[in-house]
Amino acid sequence: MGAFLATLAIPTVTAPAYAVPLPAGFVRLADVDPTIRQDIRYAGRENFLRRKVDGYDAPACILTTQAAKALFSVQKTMTAKGLTLVVFDCYRPARAVADMVRWTREGGPPDPQWYPTVRRGDLIAKGYVGELSSHSRGSTVDLAIADATSAVHPACGAPDGTTLDFGTGFDCFDPMSETAHRPLPAEAAADRKMLLAAMHAAGFRNYAREWWHFTLAKEPYPKQRFDFPVTAD
Questions:
Q1: Helices then strands, each counted (H, E), the chain
Q2: Entry pTM
Q3: What's the Cα-to-Cα distance from 63 to each of 39, 93, 130, 137, 219, rounded to whole Å?
Q4: Annotation marks residue 131 as catalytic
Q5: CA dist., res. 177 & res. 211, Å (int)
Q6: How many angstroms separate the CA atoms of 63 and 178, rounded?
C-alpha cells in the first residue's frame, strides 16, 4: 500500500509545448531572411485592439514560400541603400480575423491613436477592417522601411529604432493612410514611393487604402484561407 501511495504522489510531468508544424508551402520568414526586422503587432498590445489577437501565439512572421522569397529580394534592394524592411503582420489566422470583427461590433467611440475620425462600429463599413482578409491566404504582408543602422541591439539603451516617415503609422485607419493621399510632406511621399516601387518590382500589389499593405500578385492560394496559429520555432 505504501508503494502504491508513493506512486500516486509522483508529480505529473507536463510535456513541453512545441510549435505547430506549418502546412506545406509555408515558412517562417526568419528562416528565409533573418535580417528583415519583425515587429508583429497583433501578438502584443500595441495595436488597434489594444490587446493580443486570437491566434497569435508568438510574434513571428509566417508566409507562403513564394511571398517570403519575394520579400528576400526586396530586402536586398533595401540593404544596398543602408535600409531594412520591418514587417508588422504577415499570415493572419482566420480566427484572428473573426476576433477583429467581433471586436468592432462591440462598438465604441473613435480612438485618437488608431481611428481618430471613425467610430469602432463603422470600421468594417468604412473598409478599415475586413470580414475576410487576404492575410489569411498567407501571401499578404504589412510592412515599412527603417534605417538599417538602427537595428543594433545594445546591452543597454533603446533596443530598436523607428521607421522612415510615411506620413502615418501602421494601422492608422484614416484617409491619410491611402497610398496616394495628398498633400503629404515631401519626405513621406518619397518614402511611400520607394516602398511601392520596391514591392512592385518583386511582384507585390498594393492595397490603395493602406500604404503598408501588399499582396503577392501570383499568390499560390488565391481562394484558400488558413487558420493554423502563429507560432515560433
A1: 5, 7
A2: 0.87
A3: 15, 11, 19, 9, 11
A4: no
A5: 6
A6: 24
Cell of 129: 477592417
E strands within 50-167? 62-64, 83-89, 140-147
| Beta-bridge partner residues of 64 | 26
Given the residues 106, 131, 210, 219, the one annotated as active site: 210
First to last CA, the chain: 45
User: Residue 161: which pLDDT band, with cuts at 50, 70 and 90?
Assistant: low
The C-alpha angle 191, 88, 48, rounded to 5 degrees, equals 105
User: Residue 163: left (phi > 0), alpha (psi -120 to 50), or beta?
Assistant: beta
Residue 146 CB: number of other CB atoms within 10 A? 20
C-alpha grid cell, residue 23 = 502546412
Residue 18 dihedral angles phi and psi, to the nearest 5°: -110, 155
Q: What is the pLDDT of residues 72-109, one digit of tens each?
A: 999 999 999 999 999 999 999 999 999 999 999 999 99
